[in-house]
From TrEMBL:
Protein name (database record): Galactokinase
Organism: Muriicola jejuensis
GO molecular function: ATP binding; galactokinase activity; metal ion binding
Stored InterPro entries: Galactokinase, Galactokinase_CS, GalKase_N, GHMP_kinase_C_dom, GHMP_kinase_C_sf, GHMP_kinase_N_dom, GHMP_knse_ATP-bd_CS, Mevalonate/galactokinase
Ranges of residues in domain GHMP kinase N-terminal: 94-180
Domain Galactokinase N-terminal: 12-57
Keywords: ATP-binding, Carbohydrate metabolism, Cytoplasm, Galactose metabolism, Kinase, Magnesium, Metal-binding, Nucleotide-binding, Transferase
GHMP kinase C-terminal domain segment(s): 279-347
Family: Belongs to the GHMP kinase family. GalK subfamily.
Gene Ontology CC: one annotated term: cytosol
UniProt enzyme class: transferase
EC number of the protein: 2.7.1.6
GO terms (BP aspect): galactose metabolic process
């Protein structure tokens, strides 16, 4: 957790509302492997990171609530709970979505005053939206003593994103943000919703992100299209999700579907297999296999699932050229970050040369982040 960020929202809250708030830390995530598998009820291997959202909040004594984005000083005054606006863009939508979900569950929370601030670049594939949703539900659970379990909070955050914000995402981001553990990746089965924390003692290695700084306009529409393709293939196979489809079932269906759709479904089946191999590799401390799986995942995302882009491919190729152990695009695709497993002694030179080469090629630098695998949502005590 970023203590400075938390102290800064505490100070802003105190000067604005004159009272000591409850302080919450809500992290972003990386995903080691298992991309576009969560909404297919597949396997994923995310981990919470030391970048995220800090939130200060308290029940409002005045009755009316007040939500403040500390960075922009933008203020949102929520109305009565029966008046949740039908649609809203921007950060308040994540909080309104949570309120709507609580409403559906018969919970009508009283208003809160809150201040938040984050250090997660938005649109970079580090789950800034899930971090906002998780911070709010975690915070409300604390100050209003709602008694929600960790899984209920994940479900509410996920439902808010789907039903109010309108993104048909899987459950990985919200789950990793709540269940994350320091030094561990979360091996999550998105069908059973059972998970196991896998130790990742990467003594000589550093997870390094390179943010392309781009988010192509295709990102949202292509995400939904991919999801529809997968769902339609599962339906044709007579099952609920691609998780229940085997390669022989897919081969039998081949004459009835386009080669394109076949390739995409095959990617999902292969990516699930890669997640299992990656878990074994980590448990055996076999980082060369883990690294190879990352490159294979990228290849699949580029050629089979077709969610990469020129900028991401450029950075992954560069990592390959420099002998980086493993690299791939991360998250939904069409921009955002690459994830790189880099030997600690090579991190500086890898970052410097990536920035230089990326700038030469695309006219502006990529942004590096050396991240630490950290705990999920937490209460902060100063
Ligand atoms: C985005 C979504 F929000 C996740 O649910 C997941 O599908 C990911 O893209 C791709 O793996 O982050």
């Amino acid at each position: 957790m970023d203590r400075n960020l938390i102290e800064s929202v505490r100070t802003s809250f105190l000067s604005r509302f004159g009272e000591e708030p409850v302080l919450i830390w809500s992290p972003g995530r990386i995903n080691v492997i298992g991309e576009h598998t969560d909404y297919n009820q597949g396997l994923v291997l995310p981990a919470a990171i030391d970048m995220g959202i800090a939130m200060a909040l308290k029940i409002s004594r005045k009755g009316a609530g007040e939500w403040v984005a500390a960075d922009t000083e933008e203020v949102y005054i929520p109305g009565a709970f029966q008046d949740i606006p039908e649609k809203r863009e921007g950060w308040a939508a994540y909080f309104l979505g949570i309120l709507q979900e609580l409403h559906k569950r018969g919970i009508r929370p009283v208003n809160v005053q809150l201040v938040f601030r984050g250090n997660l670049p938005s649109g970079a594939g580090l789950s800034s939206s899930a971090a906002l949703e998780n911070a709010f539900i975690f915070g409300l659970n604390q100050v209003l003593e709602l008694g929600l379990s960790a899984m209920e909070m994940v479900e509410i955050s996920h439902a808010a994103e789907q039903n109010y914000v309108g993104v048909r995402c899987g459950i990985m981001d919200q789950y990793a943000g709540i269940f994350g553990r320091a030094g561990k990746a979360i091996f999550l089965d998105c069908k059973s919703l059972r998970s196991e924390a896998i130790s990742m003692p990467l003594t000589d290695y550093q997870w390094t992100l390179l943010d392309t700084g781009v988010k192509h306009h295709l990102a949202d529409s292509a995400y939904n299209e991919r999801r529809e393709t997968c769902e339609s293939i599962a339906r044709k196979c007579g099952v609920r999700s691609l998780r229940e489809v085997t390669t022989s079932m897919l081969d039998a269906l081949r004459p009835e579907i386009t080669p394109d759709d076949y390739r995409k479904a095959l990617f999902v089946l292969e990516e699930n297999a890669r997640v299992m191999q990656a878990v074994t590799a980590i448990q055996n401390n076999d980082l060369s296999t883990l690294g190879r799986l990352l490159y294979e995942s990228h290849k699949g995302l580029k050629y089979q699932y077709e969610v990469s882009c020129e900028e991401l491919d450029f950075l992954v190729d560069l990592a390959g050229e420099r002998g980086v152990q493993g690299a791939r695009m991360m998250g939904g695709g069409f921009g955002g970050c690459t994830l790189n497993l880099v030997k600690k002694k090579d991190v500086r030179s890898f970052i410097d040369s990536s920035i230089e080469r990326y700038s030469d090629r695309f006219g502006s630098p990529c942004t590096p982040y050396e991240i630490k695998i950290s705990d999920g949502c937490n209460l902060y005590h100063s």
